[in-house]
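can u do me a favor
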């Protein structure tokens, strides 16, 4: 940018250093972006933001010089600056500290920042690349990063190995209608809806595997809980049945909730989730069979019968008053995917469960024991209208050392939406993909 650098080269401090013990009186070298700016008389007030926080900066014309001061008077919101300044205690400043600039340099003064309050949601989505600088989004994605870390740490403790399955695939695994079809050099291809079938293959040599990959759903549903691209955590465990799998899901949900509450309390608070609510989360989560859920819903006046899918309204009714997640288990065969194991005790149902988040947020995990009988798999594939030839490789897994196993998929943004009490799932991902939008 124009002008000679006024801040000489050298290592920089971060904003949080201004609030440290013994910081008052120290000289700091800071750089970042302007959150707000105003000036009156010969003094300019800036609020400077970097990745560690924000601090009030004052710059006096007679200290920083006429040239730099004139430039500071014209900075826009989100201008980038570098400065040297002395930390002072000031009870009027946010956090009780301010930095009094001794040298100040505008890196980029910027154009008028187009984002302010009361703009339409559509406009804000068009400007998502700038909107994500907001405090709420910064807090959200820090919690998300912590959640991902906590999930990986949990899986590490449980000796589950991370795998990297493909996202470009030759067969739709969760039902063709909701797969994004692509032209793969003249042959049909699909964006992955689930890594499950690949994880099942990887299970045989590794026994306990997981993947954290994007999944894609070509669902035109405009709901506050559907994205067309979401981050999918999928786990597959050998020698495990449904009950043990649900214990695992429960432990994972509790432990990652505690970790997030421990590590990101400020961000949770800012977003409207008191951290103690996550800290207090404990198992066991109630387990309700689908048949029991139907009963309960009928008592509440829902016109449901065996075979009715549980939609948003039904899931909401089951959990609206709950503080703890709820498992609904043993769904009718016809409602669920081809790979789910038929229940022995109740053969009209499968060994499957959905975990519903409390407070009406709906399904966050889909889990099941997997069918090991090859004929039943073929029968179920045909019943769902799939072409068994496309699944030949998967059927091979039932031909060589087939074992009982089970797994689940967790929608990371779904979990986060509940944790952060977000109205819409799109707020849990920086660049949301929905039926009406895949830009920016
Ligand atoms: O219940 P689903 O469809 O299950 C599967 O795909 C299994 N093959 C997973 C497995 O067992 N490995 O999806 C799993 C989870 C859901 O519970 C939900 O949390 C999330 O993925 N999910 C979505 N999240 C956001 N937007 C969507 N459109 C989603 N569809 C599913
Ligand atoms: Mg599901």
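np, heres the sequence
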């Amino acid at each position: 940018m124009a002008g000679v650098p006024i801040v000489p080269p050298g290592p920089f401090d971060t904003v949080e250093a201004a609030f440290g013990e013994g910081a008052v009186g120290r000289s700091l070298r800071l750089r970042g972006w302007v959150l707000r700016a105003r000036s009156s008389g010969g003094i300019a007030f800036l609020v400077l933001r970097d990745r560690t926080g924000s601090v009030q900066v004052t710059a006096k014309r007679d200290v920083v010089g006429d040239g730099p001061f004139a430039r500071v008077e014209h900075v826009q919101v989100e201008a980038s600056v570098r400065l040297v300044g002395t930390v002072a205690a000031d009870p009027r400043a946010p956090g009780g500290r301010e930095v009094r600039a001794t040298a100040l340099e505008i890196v980029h003064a910027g154009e008028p920042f187009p984002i302010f309050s009361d703009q339409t949601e559509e406009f804000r989505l068009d400007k998502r690349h700038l909107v994500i600088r907001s405090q709420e989004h910064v807090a959200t994605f820090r919690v998300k990063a912590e959640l991902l870390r906590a999930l990986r740490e949990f899986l590490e403790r449980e000796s589950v190995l991370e795998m990297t399955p493909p996202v470009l695939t030759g067969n739709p695994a969760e039902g063709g209608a909701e797969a994004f079809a692509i032209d793969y050099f003249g042959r049909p291809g699909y964006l992955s809806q689930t890594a499950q079938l690949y994880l099942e293959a990887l299970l045989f040599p590794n026994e306990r595997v997981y993947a954290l990959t994007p999944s894609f759903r070509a669902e035109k549903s405009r709901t506050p809980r559907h994205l067309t691209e979401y981050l999918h955590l999928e786990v597959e465990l050998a020698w495990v049945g449904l009950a043990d799998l649900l214990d695992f899901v429960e432990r994972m949900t509790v432990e990652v909730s505690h970790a997030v509450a421990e590590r990101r309390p400020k961000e949770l608070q800012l977003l409207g989730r008191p951290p103690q609510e996550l800290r207090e989360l404990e198992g066991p989560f109630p387990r309700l069979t689908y048949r029991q859920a139907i009963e309960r819903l009928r008592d509440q006046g829902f016109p449901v019968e065996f075979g009715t899918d549980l939609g948003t309204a039904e899931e909401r009714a089951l959990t609206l008053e709950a503080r703890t997640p709820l498992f609904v288990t043993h769904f009718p065969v016809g409602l669920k995917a081809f790979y789910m194991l038929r229940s022995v005790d109740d053969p009209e149902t499968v060994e499957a469960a959905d975990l519903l988040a409390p407070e009406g947020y709906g399904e966050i995990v889909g889990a099941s024991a997997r069918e090991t009988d090859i004929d039943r798999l073929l029968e179920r594939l045909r019943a769902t209208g799939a072409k068994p030839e496309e699944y030949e490789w998967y059927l091979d897994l039932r031909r060589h050392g087939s074992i009982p196993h089970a797994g689940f998929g967790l929608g990371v943004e779904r979990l986060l939406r509940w944790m952060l009490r977000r109205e819409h799932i799109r707020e849990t991902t920086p660049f949301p993909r929905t039926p009406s939008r895949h830009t920016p």
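Residues 124-428 form a domain with the BirA Bifunctional Protein; domain 2 fold (CATH 3.30.930.10). hope that helps!!
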